[in-house]
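User: I'm writing a tutorial on reading structure tokens. Could you give me a worked example: one chain, its sequence, then its tokens, then a sentence or two explaining what the tokens reveal?
Assistant: Sure. Here is the example chain.
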Amino acid sequence: MTQPSRGGRRPGAGRPTGSGLFGEPAQPVRVPASLVPAVVAYLEVYRQKGSDLEASEPGAAVAVDPRPVVPNPVPKRVVRAVSSVPASFPTPADDYVERALDLNDHLVITGHQDATFIVRVVGWSMIGAGIHDGDEVVVDRAITPADGHVVVAIVNGELTIKRLRFRKRKPVLVAENPHFKERRFEEGSSDELEIWGVATRVLHKL
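And here are its predicted structure tokens:
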């Protein structure tokens, strides 16, 4: 029987295993359509083993570009409503308008202005805490870090953002993404850890 010259599977045909962007075999998975952009963005960050990423684990959420919060000489105020509205915005003439809200007062703890910074987050290891790649986080360096706080830490000279836990009185940096390992700091370890500040707010674009 004559073998067809076209079609079918041919030995050695196709792209060699491991020659893709990630240098390893790929596996098809089913992803909800609404999550495709997030998955693609996550993989792109994971692929960047360098550039903005300086953490030892590719794709881990790191804090970059820390900037101080400078008070405005003229407060920027927005209208604050007492009740929520489903799909419209109240006018200043409505009875349920409470008062104007200064965003500086809303985001910065009184007396902590000089200790408050905004950092940009790169990576997806804190997505479970609502912190996405590209978000900006308000960080207060005047707050004493405690168990459960989301903190910006300096690990071996590199800024990272994780949840702080204490186990047997030893600090542990925990990711809010099951694909990333926690970071333990044992006595005698060569790793250097400094808690740079406590995250208080996340600024997430819609």
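What the tokens reveal: The beta strands are 62-68, 77-81, 97-102, 116-122, 136-140, 150-155, 158-167, 170-174, 183-184, 193-203. DSSP finds two helices and ten strands in the chain.
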